[in-house]
Amino acid sequence: MSDLHLIDPNFALPAVETEGMVFRDVLKTEADIYGLYQPKTNPIYCRLPQELADTVSPGVSRLNRCTAGGRLRFKTDSQRIAFRVRQTGEKKASSHQTFINTSGFDMYLWEDGRQRFWCSLIPPPDRTNGYETMTRLPDCRLREFVVNFPAYDGVLELQIGIEEGCRLEGGSRYRSEKPVVFYGSSITQGACASRPGNSYQNILTRRLDFDYLNFGYSGNGKGEPAVAEYLASLDASAYVMDYDHNAPTVDHLAATHEPFVRILREKHPDIPILLMSKTDIPRTEKAEEFTNRRRDVIRATYETLLAEGDRNIYFLDGQTIFAIHGGDSCTVDGTHPTDLGFMCMADAVEPFLRKMLYGGD
Questions:
Q1: Residue 27: helix, strand or coil by DSSP?
Q2: How far apart are CA 117 and CA 109, in angstroms?
Q3: Distance from C-alpha of 60 to C-alpha of 224, rounded to nearest angstrom
Q4: pTM over 0.85
Q5: Which tens digits make up the pLDDT trace of 311-331?
Q6: Is beta strand 143-148 parallel, antiparallel or unpaired with respect to 168-170?
Q7: What does each C-alpha distance from 208 to 23, 97, 312, 346, 356 come to in angstroms?
Q8: What is the pLDDT, as a whole number, of residue 290?
Q9: CA-CA distances (angstroms) from residue 306 to 58, 120, 237, 291, 312?
Q10: What is the C-alpha separation between 361 and 359, in angstroms, rounded?
Q11: For the chain, percent helix, then strand, then coil, each to nearest 5?
């Protein structure tokens, strides 16, 4: 029902009143952009260098312009904050996901040493290749915000509008400035959170205050050596390998998983690496056997490196993550997490990352 807001005004989108506001491309402001490939100088918003993505696979080439993990951090004393978004328009409403997560943004207020949810910047259902949205603050004192980019759409241009005469500055620095690098599947990319800020990485970055890069490629995280070589070239603080779901067979996983990790380890002998197996809970004996065989491959990578003396390698059994809630409310479709599922993932990964980044602090 596209006109539900006529029956229930709580579903109406906020009015966009931009009179007296000045709009600027965020790339030409002091606002900071995190999680994307050289965003201030690269001509497109993307995650891998696009020329590399084009050589990996058609899927990675196309998904690379999805802005999962992108974040805008800034300070302003404007009472009204507006955004003009120009997008590829390729991502339509999804059968599995909310339009907010695939094509919208959400906004957090940084206050008293923590981020708290402020609002969702929701695209209208009839959006073609862009939209305007805004939020209003109670007053005009200086505040800091974090805006999370869409998980499944391409952003061609993002403009921020503030009231004339107001300040627009860069945000605070992360406690851990070298990024944590996440690699994996659609779940890594953020499917099916209700909005971008509810992916498990964004939950974790709010809790532990670290920068990160999201290399989740929906259906296409298949452990290609070229991707491993690029991730190994990054100046990272840690790696999280959520690479299981997209390996088409157990044999493919066995042939690619350990070599992928070894490429990372060769370039970074001491950087912590967390290996995760998939989270969905199997519902048949055959599915359970298949899941266990895949988990054993990942565990074998962990145990092999551990036996070689690697003390910065970690393993997380994904089958334990949703078990505390029985799994029934943790996925949309048996595989992709709900917000509860992502919260469970964040809870499971947090102790590892806390130790990996801060020695348990």
A1: helix
A2: 6
A3: 11
A4: yes
A5: 999 999 999 999 877 778 999
A6: unpaired
A7: 32, 27, 19, 11, 11
A8: 87
A9: 35, 43, 20, 23, 8
A10: 6
A11: 35, 25, 40
